[in-house]
Amino acid sequence: MIGHYIALIRRELWEHRSIFVTPLVIASIVTLGTLTTLMFAGEFHQQLDLVIFGAQNVAGDTERRAILTGFFVGSSWLFLLGLGVLTIFYALDALYAERKDKSILFWRSLPVTDAETVVSKLLTAILVIPAVAFAGIVVTHIVNLIVTSLWVSSKGGDAGVMIWGSVPLIDNWLATLVVLYAIAIWMSPFVGWFLFVSAFTKRAPLLMGFLPLVLIPMIEGIFLRSGHFAEAVWGRGAKIPVFADIDLERFFDEDRLQVRDEMVSLLSHLDPVKFLTSPDTWLGIIVCGLLVTAAIYVRRYRDES
Amino acid sequence: MTSLVTASGVSKHFGAVRAVDNVSFDIEKGRILGLIGPNGAGKTTLLKALLGLTECDGDLSVLGLDPFRQRKKLMQQICFIADVAVLPRWIKVSQALDFVEAIHPNFTRSRAEELLKQTKVQPGAKVKELSKGMVTQLHLSIIMAIDAKLLVLDEPTLGLDILFRKEFYANLLNDYFDEERTILITTHQVEEIENLLTDIMFINDGKILLDSTMDELGETYIEVMTSGENAQKARGLGPVAEAEMFGKSVMLFEGVSREHLEGFGEIRIPSVADLFVAKIKEARR
């Protein structure tokens, strides 16, 4: 059973090379950005010496952590963006391409159920793609830290103190992992929807996937003068209940005039329990389940002849 | 004899069109059955019903299973080649073997590799880099490495040149077929497979026109080439079809004994193609 799923998911990775190519491209862009910045910064000798001196001797651990975390978060968001686009295209293609090239007849001539096939595609979208993206993020962080360390050292700074001594790798990575999977689960009804579209549409899956998401809010707005559908669909991304409520008074240490140490931790801003106990999370999972069931049903009962 | 496939009152409708119309038949173990019919006769629909790829009305049992509801179990014992184009273009030869090996309990990888070594198909090549004939060779190598009880071939050699077609059927007979296995083939090129069939079924407009063993066929249908007075007499026996050839009349008789006909002229066993044409004409009358 598990063996079947592994084989099916491996099949997805063979077919959809973009699952690897996208993180690779983003990693290259981030690294290229770092290199460009460092080269550009290298032109300002005096200011640079001052900054390195300051970062090494004046700034505390908290500030250094905050700056490194800022860089981490920035590059991770780029991955998230790429991941979103990748997942949409993947899900829309997953059950469409096999019908278009007729390979569905080959896949269905093997002892695999339609449910196993469709579920393997869902798992690829919400488990595997985030995992590959996570690996991309980790590698990007490490590569960029190494590049920056070498550069700092060449400018006379102590990379051990400035970077490796302060970098909150585990905190950042754990937080990234939580956010990646929270987003995958939170947005899973969209994955279900795109898989369903991919299973039934005869042509133009991208158009068929987005047209209802645009037209239904318009129709609702015109006839019912309300915006529930638009709110539920287009507003969902921003409402993900994984971030802890930030108490601004506790955020800043008035006495020392700086951000509190514990506030620099990304994990401290996340609240997985709140996410998992939110009814909206579970509603999304149910909607995803229904749409995936519909996709299985279409693949099973549709007759291509 | 054990029945591998039992169909009783099987129908499939697409709206008002009856693609398969109340057909009943049995397929026994160890046979090679040719399913012959014009385009749109319902061949492919019938095969899809047998393979559990489409739902149908009536009672249909394949290897004792309900094909549509127990497709996964059925596919462990059935192999199926739909058309040369169904292998995904992006897959590598080695990946296709990896996948089938992981999924299919009755697949022997070494056997497939052995068969592929006899062809020009390279393990590292992608399907899109292979010629149409090579894709078929790949598919056939996979299929022949699966220990299946029933092999279903739907127009397996469509678009292939004559060399490949001959080789395809030779491989099938020599390396695959034995009395434990059963093969069901549909094709337009009847004349190429008629020598290897043990059974034949004609289908037209969703109905079965003929369901017979090849041995029975030779006894039931007799062709006489005759002319002049003999032709007149022979015509009196009610041939099912008549054609002119080289100034002579070629008449096809059904269920008339050989002794009866021998006096009228040259006796022949009709080709499947001629018989098919006669049967279709008869049905349209």
How many H/I helical runs of chain A? 15
Number of strand elements of chain B: 13
CATH topology of the largest domain in chain B: Rossmann fold
| Helix and strand run of chain A | HHHHHHHHHHHHHEEHH
Question: What is the CA-based Rg of chain B, rounded?
Answer: 21 Å
Assigned CATH architecture of the largest domain in chain B:
3-Layer(aba) Sandwich
Q: Major β-sheet of chain B, in short?
A: 6 strands, mixed
Oligomerization status of the protein chains: heterodimer
Mean pLDDT of chain A: 87
Number of strands of chain A: 2
Low-confidence stretches of chain B: none
Read across the widest sheet of chain A, the strand sequence of neighbours is 1-2
How are helices and strands ordered from N to C of chain B?
A: EEEHEHEHHHEHEHEEHEHEEHEH
- How much helicity do the residues of chain A have? over 70%
User: How much of the sequence of chain B is in beta strands?
Assistant: 25-35%
* Tally of individual helices of chain B: 11
Q: Sketch the major β-sheet of chain A.
A: 2 strands, antiparallel
Shape of chain B: globular
Q: Can you walk through the features of this model?
A:
The complex is a heterodimer of chains A (305) and B (285). Chain A has 305 residues and is an all-alpha fold. Chain A has one domain (2-301). Chain A is built from 15 helices and 2 strands. Chain A has a two-stranded antiparallel sheet. In chain A, a hairpin with a 4-residue loop joins β1 (252-253) and β2 (258-259). The longest helix of chain A has 41 residues, at 114-154. The two termini of chain A are 30 Å apart. The mean pLDDT of chain A is 87. In chain B, β11 and β12 form a beta hairpin. In chain B, α5 runs parallel beside α6. Chain B starts with a strand and ends with a helix. Chain A binds chain B through residues 3-4, 6-8, 10-11, 14-15, 98, 101-106, 108-113, 301, 303, 305, and chain B through 14, 44-45, 48, 51, 53-55, 71-76, 78-83, 85-92, 95, 98-100, 102-105, 139.
